[in-house]
Backbone:
């Protein structure tokens, strides 16, 4: 696991957050985990707001009209091949809600990155019990096969993250088109 604090220049982070929080930004409200997959979650806890920026499939790739917002993020990641990028917004809860251990992709050679976009007491917990706190402009990078879960915050109106999955440039698999 690698943690990078101060991943983006402050002005780039602020511009991204302001764009995501702007009235009319196209969010979708969806379950965090598949219905019934995590029976400990009450239905009102199993909701998040999502915007998909990129989703690669062998036959086609979805690219959001808002993809240009990620210019600075892509520039700072360097030459990686994006598999999936989405923004996740979960609302404050009375208690921390963990949504269930999972992997984002099983694509061979994939890496997961979580860029925290606001300060709050939510976190990412890994199967081994280790945690990474939600600190604005912190990027945590780890092998996509590593099981993890997000946790809601209790001290801010929302927890906002950018979830990124990309192909490790060293992977020996035919990569998707650049995102």
Residues:
């Amino acid at each position: 696991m690698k943690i990078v604090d101060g991943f983006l220049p402050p002005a780039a982070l602020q511009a991204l957050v302001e764009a995501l929080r702007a009235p009319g930004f196209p969010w979708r409200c969806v379950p965090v985990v598949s219905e019934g997959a995590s029976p400990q979650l009450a239905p009102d806890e199993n909701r998040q707001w999502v915007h998909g920026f990129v989703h690669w499939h062998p036959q086609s790739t979805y690219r959001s009209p808002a993809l240009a917002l990620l210019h600075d993020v892509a520039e700072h990641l360097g030459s990686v091949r994006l598999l999936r990028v989405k923004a996740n917004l979960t609302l404050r809860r009375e208690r921390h809600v963990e949504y269930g251990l999972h992997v984002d992709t099983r694509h061979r050679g994939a890496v997961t990155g979580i860029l925290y976009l606001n300060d709050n007491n939510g976190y990412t917990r890994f199967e081994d019990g280790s945690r990474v706190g939600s600190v604005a402009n912190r990027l945590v990078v780890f092998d996509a096969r590593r099981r993890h879960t997000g946790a809601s915050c209790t001290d801010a109106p929302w927890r906002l993250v950018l979830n990124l999955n990309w192909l490790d440039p060293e992977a020996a698999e035919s990569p998707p088109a650049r995102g």
